[in-house]
Amino acid sequence: MSSSTTREHLAVESFLEQLRVVRQLSPHTLKAYHQDLNILCENLALESLDLHLVKASHIRSWVAKLHSGGAAPRSIARLLSAWRTFFDWLALPLPSLGITEIKTNPVQDIKAPRKAKNLPKALSVEYAIVLMEKAQTESTYYDQDPFAWANVRDHALVELFYSSGLRLSEILGLDATLSYGYPAKAAGWIAWDSAEVHVLGKGGKRRIVPIGSAAMQALHAWFAVWTEMLQKQDHQDGPFFINEKLQRLSPRTVQARLKHLAIRAELPVHVHPHMLRHSFASHVLQSSHDLRAVQEMLGHASIGSTQIYTSLDFQHLAQAYDLAHPRAKTK
């Protein structure tokens, strides 16, 4: 190891010690810093380059090499952040490390490659209908088997997901009372007369979302079962979607129940709660082309968050074109 390379490694060790003692970073974070700074040292050694001679062009070249080698944009962004912080530290008044003063940070204006946007996965309209119908069929078993009450609840859950596009946390936050009234201090509730759901969304913002007739029927059926269960235990109100202990249903339980419902419906995709939210947004946008309305119903603070569904809408149109237009595909 050359003397210059030794100095670089000593500087890295001194920097990591400062992060550990002064900033009190976790061992996991320190390990990530160490790995990223070792890559910097390796590049310096390959080009026999001292730290004070590193320019932005060197950083761009090294980043491009990492990217072409398969490094993920997120990993490169983390690496650049570590390098940027390191060079900032080297520019501070420091005890002598045997390194020439760093006057400018070569990483300052370097940005990581943009990561590709993953489109949200949504069910087709046909698959969504199959799932709803399967849930409805299984909910009818309650007439013959009172222990099948969970099927009635699950039917109401999936219908509400698909009808209103609520987040899982918003649905599980709903409360109810035996009197059909609005529960005091509730995060969310169903307005039965107006067929609407009131929820407390992200950022503490309340919104009102309409509920379709099929979902309202399923919710009424579940409310009748819910009422029966709470009256037996001498309760008057509480969480609307409950388990056998009359406690609020957990997200993990909903995820598992929905996954197995999709398997029983023989859908060839993994179905999770957020997929039903995506399906709601995609299908409403396909029919209405009203981006603002979808934004309001989803509770997005920015229209940019909703615009991703226009890509799904375009995919839908492109598939329809490929299937219908006689000149769409060459034979």
Architecture overview:
The chain has 331 residues and is mainly alpha-helical. The protein folds into 2 domains: 3-90, DNA polymerase, domain 1 (Orthogonal Bundle), CATH 1.10.150; 125-323, Intergrase catalytic core (hpI Integrase, Chain A). The chain is 56% helix and 6% strand. It is built from 12 helices and 5 strands. The chain has helices at residues 3-21, 27-46, 56-68, 73-90, 125-139, 149-164, 168-172, 213-232, 251-264, 273-288, 291-298, 303-324, and strands at residues 175-177, 189-191, 196-200, 206-210, 237-239. The strands form 2 sheets. Strands 2-3-4 form a 3-stranded antiparallel sheet. It has a two-stranded antiparallel ribbon with strand order 1-5. The longest helix has 22 residues, at 303-324. The protein starts with a helix and ends in a 7-residue tail after the last helix. Mean pLDDT is 85; it is low at 314-318.
